[in-house]
Write a structure and sequence with these properties.
By secondary structure, this protein is of the alpha/beta class. It is built from twelve helices and eight strands. Helix content is 46%, strand content 14%. The chain binds 2-phosphoglycolic acid (PGA).
Amino acid sequence: MRKALVAGNWKMHGRIEQNQLLVETLVAQLTDLADAIDIVICPPLVYLDQVGKMLNPDVIQLGAQDVSRFGQDGAHTGDCSAAMLADLGVRYVLVGHSERRSDYAENDQCIATKLAQVLSAGLTPILCVGETLEQREAQQVEQVIASQLIEALEGLDSHAVSSLVLAYEPVWAIGTGKTATPEQAQAVHAFIRETLASRYGQPLADRMIILYGGSVKAANAEQLFGQADIDGGLIGGAALVSEEFTAICRAAANSTIDG
Ligand code: PGA
């Protein structure tokens, strides 16, 4: 059985004092879920050290929101390598988030390079894919998702692919309050699993963790996580509110118990 995972993406939010309060609360409230699910927090780069020192990795693990596409130390102003993230105790790294794709024009080739960097540092990438509203309205969802997946995974062998986490995040649902319906999300998750099965075999596809992201909150988490191919969530706004994030984690734990 797949173990559910909930990852909180703080994006560009936080201050030292605020982080301390939020993380202290989460650590206290989520300890009992340690065996049931995996929980990850991805604070901004400058707060990784602060947050990492407060976490008990048996309960909540540290994640980063981005990584340099360059692997070697060198003249890359403003960048932070996967090895540096690993040095700080980071275990997961978001790659290909739609905000990176749009704000920094990251294309599939750049994303493939970043995936390789994360993997070579022994960290787990959370690869994000998702269509825009225009693409959904033009009935291009499967085409877009398949191409983002195939291009990003190009060059990885099945062992490497099996160590990834995937996240389906429809761009139109991110930060908009519009969530995909559980059925819409499930249809794309099933498609992602089928795509993986056709390329890497059913056993590998069955083991892959596929998260849903896009306006997940306490009120809709249970229904989303109750879908057969949704194995947890990538949470933005609601990850900044301890009661919301805790309730989302509990919904994921319940879905694991329910099967
Ligand atoms: P949201 O963000 O939950 O605020 O919609 C999700 C994400 O971008 O990962």
